[in-house]
Design goal:
Elements lengths: L2 H17 L9 E6 L2 E4 L15 E4 L4 E3 L7 H10 L5 E4 L3 H8 L14 H6 L5 E2 L7 H8 L7 E4 L3 E6 L2 H20 L10 H11 L1
Helix pairs in contact: 2-5, 3-6
Bound molecules: ligand LB5GJZVW and zinc ion.
């Protein structure tokens, strides 16, 4: 896909997320990997109203080389690209239920989104919690880098999800699936819930990888 087409695609999918309530105001950011750098949404921009031509462009080293001033969360995005060769896009949201899980004291930090349904296993996998740093603090990126690319998604404590995918559509779909599963987990709190067992999770991983 050309850079111009990718810019249009970021704006189109960002608006779709915004229109369906996955982001509000100027929260959230989205990036895509290019052959020679990255595109990332500008800081303080609203996902519902992006101008494709103003989306920020970074070179391979993360220097700002075009468009508006980039998201202050560029560290989080680059940490995924640097540790997951297969990552082509990253989506960070403050979607309500995933963020709720990131705030609950009894969320398992090793497995924030336990395997309730097959699709979350197939699309997202195990999601660890990354301890709290203020937004824009590069140490958040260091903690993601320390995971060595083992996870496609993380929850930032008291903040929200960061989800990578092989391309933008995959990253957006995974972020949506994470949010819907988080919603089920919050709705079902206090109920006796049957999770998928280890053998069922292993079968999904072996089949859908
Ligand atoms: O929560 C925050 O402040 C950021 O993580 C965020 O979601 C929006 O930051 P920008 O992309 O710099 O607007
Ligand atoms: Zn944020």
């Amino acid at each position: 896909m050309s850079e111009a087409a990718l810019r249009d695609e970021i704006a189109r999918l960002a608006k779709s997320l915004f229109d369906r309530g996955y982001s509000v105001g100027s929260a959230a950011n989205i990036s895509v990997r290019l052959d020679d750098g990255y595109l990332i949404t500008p800081t303080n921009s609203c996902l519902g109203f992006l101008d494709p031509e103003r989306i920020s462009r970074l070179d391979r080293d993360g220097n700002h080389v075009g468009g508006d001033k980039p998201s202050k969360e560029v560290f989080l995005h680059r940490a995924f690209y640097e540790t997951r060769a297969e990552a082509g896009a990253v989506v960070h949201l403050h979607s309500t239920y995933a963020t709720a899980l990131s705030c609950l004291a009894d969320t398992d930090p090793e497995d924030c989104v336990p395997p309730l349904t097959p699709y979350v296993v197939m699309r997202v996998g195990r999601v660890p919690l990354v301890r709290y740093f203020r937004p824009g603090d590069a140490r958040g990126g260091d903690l993601i880098r320390a995971l060595d690319g083992r996870h496609a998604a993380v929850l930032l404590a008291n903040h929200g999800p960061v989800v990578s995918g092989k391309d933008l559509t995959s990253a957006v779909y995974a972020a949506e699936e994470l949010e819907e599963t988080a919603k089920l987990l919050v709705i079902l709190r206090g109920q006796p819930v049957r999770m998928l067992d280890a053998a069922q999770v292993a079968e999904l991983k072996a089949t859908f990888g």
